């Protein structure tokens, strides 16, 4: 009796994920640590000086975390209501935050009570930041105002009332100590100069602006709102350079890495996209459990912190690079030790002893060997195989069809099993590698279960889905054939024109030769 030959699963080419240097780099972050806060996290800001602690604003508290601590090392809770946008000063010694009651609090990182309290806004303040001279604060609130404050005297310097909706984001220039930018739900981004009484530039984003970011050079501005991330050239009067639409929901936060070569954006679609700032193409992406509200990257790019709507803080640390210089490792045998003798060819007088290789059969192969067709089909219709390796399911179907037992394996199934079969066929029948086999399976299922159509709403729904999928694919193929016909016509026209040009050139050349000879 011949030995059983396992089912051959055809190897289909897969596009897969392209492995780049960016992929390897961003995968170098360890498994995240998750910390539960008291409410939605609206702002995360890293201290610009070592040891790079970060401030997390959630609910009515501001928590300061160490880079590797899972418990807050300091808490500021002197707020009557919700706190917003806790931001460090460039020297890491002061922290400013807005609040629901319209006041702005200035804290010393080493203390507890506010050093200064700025009163002037009539509605919640969602935007607070320091100008680069370290002695002034800008703010924006739901009263449509953008204010500038003097820290030593705790007084208002100037107030701009140019926005027509809530001011929800802002940033300051690192190059010019008088320039700051605010973004509003009125779809505009405005650039202010503290020496002027009105804004010096207005940019139309087109959607409610959720976040703005200025490059360290001060020449490029990034705005996020709706599903769009847009890059503007400030030096050219706010000219749009590129508009990116890689998210499926509203983009809520932006961040740059330390070198300024990678731009990160977080969105309510639970993704963080990483762009190259040279090509503005997505080079990597992170997935999270829930919608993202805030995002921050440490000054040394060692830590990524993401805040979500459910109050969970997700912290990823970069894996430390192994240093082999000082470590005394036990010397391992050279590679040639392991491969020694593998290429040896036996001589005529040698006696060869072959080691028997035990063949391990998979579950469906064991069932096929014992001619249990229906159970073999059930084994490959399990969700893990259907979802991740559909080629195995189709290969078993093909083997059953070759044996002539596919029809009997498909027959005699209950409502749940028929629903599973039709779901798989409707989903995979449009894939070219599976189409020939699954069309045969669909025909058999239709013939077998046609008498019971109308008895089960679930099965009827799956039949309709299968019909819709095949109908769409037929329409798609017809459109492609039309396009192919158009392209053939164009190529034929180009070829004819080229032949005509060559003939004209040849005739012109011959005429010139005759004229030369005559002369």
From TrEMBL:
Compartmental location: Nucleus, Nucleolus
Domain U3 small nucleolar RNA-associated protein 15 C-terminal: 344-490
Protein origin, superkingdom: Eukaryota
Cross-referenced SUPFAM superfamilies: WD40 repeat-like (SSF50978)
GO cellular component: nucleolus
WD repeat locations: 118-159, 244-285
Keywords of the record: Nucleus, Repeat, rRNA processing, WD repeat
Pfam families recorded: UTP15_C, WD40
GO BP terms in the entry: positive regulation of transcription by RNA polymerase I; rRNA processing
Keyword Repeat belongs to the record: yes
Magnesium is among the record's keywords: no
Task performed by this protein: Ribosome biogenesis factor. Involved in nucleolar processing of pre-18S ribosomal RNA. Required for optimal pre-ribosomal RNA transcription by RNA polymerase I. Part of the small subunit (SSU) processome, first precursor of the small eukaryotic ribosomal subunit. During the assembly of the SSU processome in the nucleolus, many ribosome biogenesis factors, an RNA chaperone and ribosomal proteins associate with the nascent pre-rRNA and work in concert to generate RNA folding, modifications, rearrangements and cleavage as well as targeted degradation of pre-ribosomal RNA by the RNA exosome.
Protein name: U3 small nucleolar RNA-associated protein 15 homolog
Lineage: Eukaryota, Metazoa, Chordata, Craniata, Vertebrata
Name of the coding gene: Utp15
């Amino acid at each position: 009796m011949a030995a059983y030959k396992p089912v051959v699963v055809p190897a289909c080419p897969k596009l897969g994920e392209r492995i780049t240097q960016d992929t390897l780099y961003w995968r170098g972050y360890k498994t995240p640590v998750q910390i539960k806060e008291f409410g939605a996290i609206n702002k995360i800001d890293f201290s610009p000086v070592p040891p790079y602690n970060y401030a997390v604003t959630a609910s009515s508290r501001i928590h300061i975390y160490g880079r590797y601590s899972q418990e807050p090392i300091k808490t500021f809770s002197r707020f009557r209501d919700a706190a917003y946008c806790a931001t460090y000063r460039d020297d890491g010694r002061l922290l400013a935050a807005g609040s629901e009651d319209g006041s702005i609090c200035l804290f010393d990182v080493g203390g507890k009570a506010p050093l200064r309290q700025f009163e002037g806004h009539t509605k919640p303040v969602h935007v607070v930041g320091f100008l680069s001279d370290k002695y002034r604060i800008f703010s924006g609130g739901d009263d449509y105002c953008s204010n500038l404050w003097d820290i030593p005297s705790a007084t208002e310097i100037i107030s701009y009332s140019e926005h027509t909706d809530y001011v929800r984001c802002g940033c300051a220039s690192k190059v010019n100590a008088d320039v700051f930018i605010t973004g509003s739900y009125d779809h505009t981004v405005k650039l202010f100069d503290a020496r002027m009484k009105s804004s010096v530039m207005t940019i139309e984003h087109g959607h409610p602006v959720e976040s703005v970011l200025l490059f360290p050079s001060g020449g490029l501005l990034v705005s996020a709102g709706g599903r769009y991330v847009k890059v503007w050239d400030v030096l050219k009067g706010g000219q749009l350079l590129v508009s990116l639409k890689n998210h499926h929901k509203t983009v809520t936060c932006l961040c740059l890495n330390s070198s300024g070569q990678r731009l990160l954006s977080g969105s309510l679609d639970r993704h963080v996209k990483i762009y190259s700032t040279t090509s503005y193409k997505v080079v990597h992406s992170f997935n999270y459990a829930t919608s993202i509200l805030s995002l921050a990257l440490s000054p040394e790019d060692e830590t990524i912190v993401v805040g979500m709507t459910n109050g969970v803080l997700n912290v990823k640390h970069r894996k430390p690079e192994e240093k082999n210089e000082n470590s005394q490792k036990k010397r391992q045998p050279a590679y040639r030790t392991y491969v020694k003798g593998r290429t040896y060819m036996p001589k005529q007088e040698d006696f060869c002893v072959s080691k028997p290789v035990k063949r391990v059969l998979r579950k469906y192969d064991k069932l096929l060997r014992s001619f249990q067709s229906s159970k073999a089909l059930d084994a490959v219709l399990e969700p893990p195989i259907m979802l991740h390796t559909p080629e195995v399911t189709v290969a078993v179907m093909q083997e059953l069809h070759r044996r002539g037992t596919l029809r009997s394996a498909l027959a005699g199934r209950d409502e749940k099993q028929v629903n599973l079969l039709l779901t798989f066929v409707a989903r995979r029948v449009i894939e070219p590698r599976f189409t020939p086999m699954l069309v045969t399976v669909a025909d058999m299922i239709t013939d077998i279960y046609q008498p019971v159509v109308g008895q089960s709403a679930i099965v009827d729904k799956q039949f309709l889905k299968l019909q819709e999928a095949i109908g769409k694919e037929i329409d798609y193929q017809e459109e492609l054939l039309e396009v192919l016909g158009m392209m053939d016509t164009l190529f034929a026209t180009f070829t004819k024109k080229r032949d005509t040009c060559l003939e004209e050139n040849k005739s012109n050349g011959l005429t010139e030769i005759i004229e030369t000879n005559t002369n």
